[in-house]
Amino acid sequence: MVKILPSLLAADFTALGEDIREMETAGADIFHLDIMDGRFVPNISYGLPVVEAIAEKASIPLDVHLMTQEPGQFIPEFSGMGVDMVSFHVEATPHPHRVMQLIQSYGMKAGIVLNPHTPPDSIRYLLPEVDYVLVMTVNPGFGGQEFISSCVDKIRELDGMRKKHGYDFEIEVDGGINDETAGICTEAGAGLLVSGSHLFSSPDWRKAVAALKG
User: Which positions in this protein are listed as binding substrate (predicted)?
Assistant: First the structure.
């Protein structure tokens, strides 16, 4: 079953608690939290205090996406807040396996993120142990970008590797997800869809979430 992950970076931060409640009522499955440090990506989002505030308000799981250098930082803190999933970019560390194990040691699911230019083969040896792979279908750092259609082949390739070897990792997609691209991604093998600008700008969130699920 397809799960929808609203990206809270697109929410109204002056009414964040209200947006969280309304999006949960609309049928969201998991909240996606983008953490940017201004170094790995050319933008800064929010840090631990905001994540903690979100965790106190949310009743569905939280998926933290680290767009940061040194992604091994603050893993214990995320766990203590009740975060369920943490993903990091394979390009951000020389020791991705170590970071993956650290996340899992705190009882959270570990995800590896691939930038649009990064091939699935670069994480081939992590796939037996990783919990999910996040395929970026835009360049990370800013919302509202256009979907990069060539990344769909990457989703298919990951799905093929999963089936061939009997792996059980999930495939998550982030960037330019709307009514049209959602179906393209799920058909290619994705089961977790992140949507920010499209969802939060929709006049009816319940219908928007349902449409993405197909």
Answer: 7, 65, 141-144, 174-176, 196-197
